[in-house]
Amino acid sequence: MAGDRSRCMACRTESVEEFLDIGTIPVANNFVPANKLGDPEPAYPLRVGYCHNCSHCQLLDMVPPTELFDDYTYLSGVSVTISEYLRGIASGLVDRYSLGPDDLAIDVGSNDGTLLTGYLSHNIKVLGVEPAKNLLEISKAAGVETVCDYFGLKTAREVLEKYGQASVITSVNNFAHVPDPHDFVQGVDALLKEGGVFVVEIHYLMKMIQDGAFDTVYHEHMSYWGLIPMIALFEQYNMHAIRAKVLDIHHGQLRVYVSRKDELQPDETVAAVVDHEREVGIPGWESCRELAENARSARTVLLNLIDKLIGEGATIGGYGATAKGNTLLSFLGIGPERLKFIADRNTIKQGTYTPGHHIPVVSPDRIMVDKPDYLLNLAWNLTDEIAEQQSEYLKQGGHLIVPIPEVTVI
Ligand code: DWN
Questions:
Q1: Scanning 72, 267, 331, 366, which has its CA 20 to 30 A from the CA of 19?
Q2: 79 CB less than 6 Å from ligand 1?
């Protein structure tokens, strides 16, 4: 059962008020194998709240992490854009902190090990921490040793004993998955060597609100971080942000470099991001309510377009069996009667069905066989890569419907 949370995960006050209700839906990455289609599928409420005390946003209903992450279908290495990006984080850190063979780099939520492979050519020692058992073989084949567990103080102490202190710890698109960020930060503090840096990267609440990216809301994403509440959290453990950067990847991420307070000093980028958040009032209650309003109007616009096209005799498929796509489809109530299939390069997802509405997930080869008139692009954060990959389909008259930030047809 999902647990209810009106207490803020960041500041721990009872100040969280709901602003968005997506509905009661299954877990976004739990694609259903063909032989389980008849089985009951657990569904959980998906509501987001805003903390009036520290402005942190979080889910109000928590699904146990073991149900979300023990077996994980998302692979970082499937997208060329994402793979290059993740490896670039590693090489960027090697340069910035002059890492060498004596340094240990740990990636928390290491998935298939893609980020850590970026250190290997520099002879840096690497270690992944990742709870998904099904990904262990993949990271091992990539040359990455992985501790299969959830990260927190307990795991950090175990890692420390066996592998020693880390010079850098990264957590890319993982910190939002954490049910207790306090325990996580204590783990970082326990494991990081003196002068070491923790680099955390999350879908940025600011960009999510500006782009109306309500589909980023799913059970995995327990938190929606802005820099201001994050700084307040680190403050409690004598840590601070020393550098902050807003990036375009995944439609807008925030990367924050963190150290112990007395070890490294912040540069001007931190104050710049904080000032900008204050200036535009994000994260703020009004902007969160706008996100909910945008979600409702996007639902109307997109459903009208899809039904108009189908009414004119068009056929529609989907591209990208994404977690966010499953939020979008559930919120709009779109099933196989509207989308014939969803194509995705990830072979773990192929042959399965989307959670809830059971749209078949197929290989992208199917696109040129069926030649649907339109493909709803559910990986709209990767439109450039997908448009390039599907250039033949587009050349032959096919179209991509991009749902967010604006409903557009390419
Ligand atoms: O935070 C998270 C992000 C980083 O990844 C996780 N909680 C879950 C996951 O979210 P998502 O599933 O919405 O992520 P993506 O990166 O938008 O997924 C892209 C999907 O599209 C993957 O399944 C791979 C697929 N793909 C493809 O089949 N062909 C992607 C590209 C670019 C392609 O050419």
A1: 72
A2: yes
